[in-house]
Amino acid sequence: MSDRYELIYNIVRAIPSGRVTTYGHIAAAIGVRSGARLVGWALNAVAHQDRIDIPCHRVVNRLGELSGKMHFETPFVMRERLEAEGVGFLGDAVDLDQHIWVPEIAP
DNA sequence: ACTTTGACTTGCA
DNA sequence: ATGCAAGCCAAAG
User: Based on the structure, what is the number of domains in chain A?
Assistant: First the structure.
């Protein structure tokens, strides 16, 4: 595990309830602007291992779509949790304009 | 040790 | 405005 993973986990864990963020924002926050895929890998590792304390369901792609919902226990749990936190949906994507959350850039 | 793929994004045609 | 291609880091084959 690289230190980047820790940064990613730290940021994802810092996402407030009822808010969502995108892979690109997290990637930019850890200093790797084009490393959005790395974020996905980190979350996949988190989901596959026992790092469930990280709210990976609050991480969506830049369109607000729940791209990683199929990696959860069930494809519905992700939306269920987001809706339970008060996140509004526009069709199959979250209302980014209303719930987007931008992490602080880490040096 | 090298190649391929993946929970993505951005840029050019 | 839509479609295809390239780029980036890390892990699995």
Answer: 1
* A107 domain-assigned: no
CATH number of the domain to which A11 belongs:
1.10.10.10
pLDDT digits (tens, 9 = 90+) for A71-90: 998 999 999 999 999 999 99
Active-site residue, selected from the candidate residues A36, A42, A56, A82: A56
Which residues form the domain of A50?
Answer: 3-99
Please indicate whether residue A56 is annotated as part of the active site: yes
Distance in Å from B13's C1' to A103's CA comes to 34
Q: Are A23 and A103 in contact (CB under 8 A)?
A: no
Tokens of residue A101, six digits: 């959350």
The pTM of the full predicted model, rounded to 2 decimals, is: 0.91
Q: What are phi and psi of A36, to 5 degrees?
A: -60, -35
Protein residue at shortest CA distance from C1' of B7: A68
